[in-house]
Amino acid sequence: MMRGLIIIFTKRPVTVIMIMAAVCIAALFASTVLPLDRLPELSVPRVTVETVYPGMAAEDIRSLVTIPVEDVFSSIKGLESIRSVSRDGSSLVTMDFRWGTDSMTAAALVREAVDAVYSALPQGVLKPSISTGDPVTEPHSVIAVRSLSGDESFARRFAGYELRSRLRRIDGAGSVLLAGGEVNEGHLRLDVLKLAALGLSPPEFTSLLAREAVDIPAGSAREGQTELVVVSSGRPGGMEELTRLILPAPSAPLQIGEAGEFELESARKKSVFVFNGKEVAALEVYRRPGADPVRLSRDIRRVVKDANAVFSHNAEIILVKDAAPSLVRSITGLAVAAALGATAVVAMLLLFIRNFRSSFLAALAIPFSTAAGICALAVAGRSLNGMSLGGLALGIGLVSDNAVIMLDLLHRHFNTSPYKPTAEETGSRAALIAGSGVSSTLTTVVVFLPVIFLPGPLGRLFGDTTIALVTSIFTGWIYAQFFVPSLFRFTFRHKPAKTLHFTKLSLEKKYRKGLSFVLRRPAKWFVIAGAASLAGAFLLLMRPAVFVSPDKAEEVLVLVEFPPGTVLESIGAYGAALSGFINELPCIKTAYGRAGTEEEDIGRRADTGYRKETLMIRCSVEKGIQPEKALAIIHSAVVEKEKGHDHFSSLADISVSLPKDKTESLLGLSSMSAYAVTGQDPEEWKERAGIVEKKLKEKNTTGIIKRRPYGIRPELRLYPNQETAAYFGISAADIAESLYVMNDGYVAASLEIEGRPLDIRVSGNNRSPAWRQMLEDIPVKTSGGETVFLGLLARVEYREADAVLARLDRSDVVYIDIPQDKSLLETAKNINASHSWFFKAGESVFSRYRNALLLTLTLAVILIYITMGAQFESFLLPLALMLTIPLSLAGAGPALLLFKSRLDSGAVMGVCALFGLVVNNGLILFEISEERLSSGCPPAQAVYGGASVRLRPILITTLTTVIALLPVALNPLGSAQKSMAASMLGGLTASSLLNLFILPPVFIRFFSWRKSC
User: Distance between CA atoms of 780 and 641, rounded to whole angstroms?
Assistant: First the structure.
């Protein structure tokens, strides 16, 4: 059947050319529509629910909101883990679902649970809000908006209403979050003593104002045939009209201006954003899953350019961050490496084959197989990312191997023929190596096939590489087996063609001499090869082990930790000064950062490590400056600044570091080992955490042990005198409502001034230094209509409490981050063995799927054995061929050391690929030796002569693969692809050279044994 198919294609060279052209055109079209990305989509199906309970402390949020919500959510189908964070005023519950769960389905299930639990929550709790997505995702673009007049409120309004609406309309844009800027509001600070004299409590005054200063619909009336809408209009037209508004107080009419001090001021900030020494408003644009980041960046830049053209006289709009350039550099680096590899392969073929026609036919395998790989990615719905392009780049050196072997066979048989061979002759000759071609291809393909079925994000991460590489290799075999004979015959010249030359030097003669020496003392060379393999394996295992080698950093992080309770206004002023100072350093291009969150930014608040008092400044490094050098400069400059200025040294702790690699964040990896300490309540885990930290600190280490969440914030807690309150008919809710009005206040009215909305907030003078004493003078209305003061009803105490409380799988928890110190980790392991409440948390996908990776490696070896056993109908021969696998370690370890690559998942995948690649040379030697053996040669002569004949194609295929892998291994922007290429390059080189001398003695003994049986 194989012979018949080859003959059919050999008779139709035009059809072959058309098929190749169609595949290349399809790939060209697919490359224009496939999205570009750094990595495949690795987001975990995640849903976060925030429930707001205004004014409530974190410990009360935990008991009143978080625990009841968790109890309902715990029964949702497909839920894998549930964790929560209770903060002052809000509860955030994050649910991770099993990999493969549709995010929209998960959100729908959560929404049903929210509807069920909301009615059971305490009065005053707002309807929970639901968001999907991963909170560790970084924004794709950051846009700063600065008012030219210095009006921060205008900058925020413009960014929030005008610019954000334009960005949201972009196809591919997800969430667009607002940060920084100011919000103006009218603030009425009540005179509580005057209110008490008039018989009004703060809540009553607020309620009166809200009912008077508003337009209220009053139904409709009919006048003849016309229906009229009736509105009771009480909304003031301006600030002066509002202050003259008279309220119907119980004792006497009250003009609003007499109730307290009225002023226009900035509302309390929820977030700040600093940029190059100034406080500005900013928008963070997140990419929708599956969107093309390059196209998204292009559209964002267009929107920014158009907005600058229209509003240039009012605001300056600056694109602070754009993720596309670094992405394009990374992808371009791989593409250039692949192009260089392809060029080097073509040059190598021309150099060694020394026949333009044959070199051209062998080189055609590269564009054809690469085009087929791109088409396969398009059909599978994948993207052109670092992993898929890496697979295409790695396959460039492999796809021409079968073509070289096929051309060598055809030239040896037809190079002296005076006439053009028939299709039957060409096809019959090509069919002679069909078996070995299928076997060599399958041994390479079966190594990668199990990778596609890896569970979770691992399969997604390496699946793109597998699809691209397997398709390329398989297409390369199809080209060699079916298309090369047709093209060879189509381009055949009637005059005798020159024999394929490897080089003018007689390498075959030298090789035969060396092989004769080895065959006389094979045991000695087996020992040498074994020692080389052990040495290579030792070097391989001694390389620093990480799951993913980090990409080169492009920015430096400056983390500023302020004391608990620090207001964002102070943080903003400090951050502006610090960012301006850093921006003046010659190695820094821009410095921007933020602190705090807005209401829609649920993802940040769901992180246990988030604190609103933390300011993170990102410093983008100038081109050509090493990030490590910039880090040292910034650290030195900031330290000197702290020494010289008390303002810098007294407010906050500053640390400077390189950002965590994005891949590590996505895969749950960290330089710190996170352990969880659980308990039935916060008091229990605090006691247990103290025990753990005491044992860990006994070890001598320079590492810093961190606790998450952390932070104690001050609070005033009111303890009502229940007997007195009951006597006056005052409930605890009445007292709390009065306090809330005097502290946070209520927005009781809204004005519209020059087309801009302005909220009117009513509160007490809570900025007074003596506010704690003034609380006692707050009037509270009794059931009899009289007014008493809060000091008579309750006592006020100052205390400190936890700012954040966390829970994990319905147990209270605190996380302890331990540095990667051997003694500390050993101590943690011992504590874990003796206490069930202390265990490893934040398990990475590598740890979770370690067994799956080992199973994949084992399965690859088994599949190679089964494939070769089925091909050659032998149980023993595959074992003999697989003896070449350990020889690849002799080169893989030194190559990783030479290219300064780590032992990461890419290197492991490269070693797995070697399992299939290194047996191919053995298959070539076996095929030619068996062919000579069947013609009557004795085993030693058959193997000896066959090895000499196959020397040239083996060296050509090895050199083309090595040359193609070299640019990828040298690519400075690569990570997993770099280490994978390095391990494959070194392993293939070592195994090919050793196999030429180690396999012939093995085959001689195998053929002799088989002949004697």
Answer: 51
| Residues 282-315 pLDDT 10s | 999 998 877 888 889 999 999 999 999 988 888 8
* pLDDT, average across residues 161-166: 91
CB under 8 Å to 172, separation ≥6 — which residues? Answer: 287, 288, 291, 292, 293, 295, 296, 299
Fill in the amino acid letter for 806.
A
848 pLDDT more than 50:
yes
Q: Of 769, 802, 835, which one is at a domain's C-terminal end?
A: 802
* Residue 780 CB contacts under 8 Å (≥ 6 apart), including other chains: 201, 730, 734, 735, 738, 787, 788, 789, 790, 793
Instruction: In whole angstroms, give the CA distance from residue 644 to residue 631.
Output: 20
Specify whether 948 is located in the same domain as 903. Answer: yes
Instruction: Identify whether residues 957 and 1008 lie together within a single domain.
Output: yes
Please give the tally of structural domains in the chain: 3
Q: Name 841's Cβ contacts closer than 8 Å, sequence gap at least 6.
A: 674, 675, 676, 808, 813, 815
The answer on 945 and 862 residing in a single domain is: yes
Residue 345 class from Cβ within 10 Å (0-12 exposed, 13-18 middle, 19+ buried)?
A: buried
Return the HEC string of 340-382: HHHHHHHHHHHHHHCCHHHHHHHHCHHHHHHHHHHHHHHHCCC
**Which positions ≥6 away from 82 have C-beta within 8 Å?**
70, 73, 74, 93, 94, 95, 96, 808, 809, 810
What is the arithmetic mean of pLDDT over 130-142?
Answer: 78
- The conformational region for residue 219 under phi > 0 = left, psi -120 to 50 = alpha, else beta, is left
- Percentage of the chain modeled with pLDDT above 70: 90
Per-residue model confidence as pLDDT tens digits over 525-569: 888 888 888 898 888 888 876 666 556 678 899 999 888 778 898
The overall average pLDDT reported for the chain is 82
User: Encoding tokens for residue 42?
Assistant: 């690795």
Residue 831 lies in a domain: no
What the block records as the tokens of 499 is 């024999």
Which has more confidence, 797 or 144? 144
Residue 245 has pLDDT above 90, yes or no: no
Number of H helices, E strands in the chain: 41, 31
Q: Residue 979 is which amino acid?
A: S
Q: In angstroms, rounded to a whole number, what is the distance separating the alpha carbons of residues 434 and 367? A: 22
Q: What CATH number does the domain containing 62 carry?
A: 3.30.70.1430
Report which of residues 615 and 199 the model is more confident about: 615
Cβ–Cβ < 8 Å for 421, 497? no
Domain contains 250: yes
Q: Is the pLDDT of residue 766 over 70?
A: no
The 3-state secondary structure of 45-93, one letter per residue: CEEEEEEECCCCCHHHHHHHHHHHHHHHHCCCCCEEEEEEEEECCEEEE
The CATH number given to whatever domain includes residue 520 is 1.20.1640.10
Amino acid making up residue 522: P
Contact 914, 892 (CB under 8 A): yes
339 in a domain, yes or no?
Answer: yes
CB-based burial label for 540 (10 Å; 0-12, 13-18, 19+): buried
CA–CA dist 390, 380 (Å, integer): 17
Q: Is 125 helix (H, G, I), strand (E, B) or coil?
A: coil
- Among 802, 831, 864, where does a domain finish? 802
| 761 and 865 in a common domain | no
Question: In this predicted structure, what is the pLDDT of residue 502?
Answer: 43
Q: Which domain holds residue 52?
A: 46-132
Mean pLDDT in residue range 334-359: 77
Statement to judge: residues 376 and 480 lie in one domain: yes
Taking only the tens place, the pLDDT of each residue in 191-215 is 877 877 777 888 888 888 888 888 8
Q: Is the pLDDT of residue 501 over 70?
A: no
CATH of the domain at 788: 3.30.2090.10
Residue 354: closest CA among 504, 456, 215: 504
The first and second tokens of residue 485, run together, are 């004979």
Residue 718 backbone dihedrals phi, psi, to 5 degrees? -100, 130
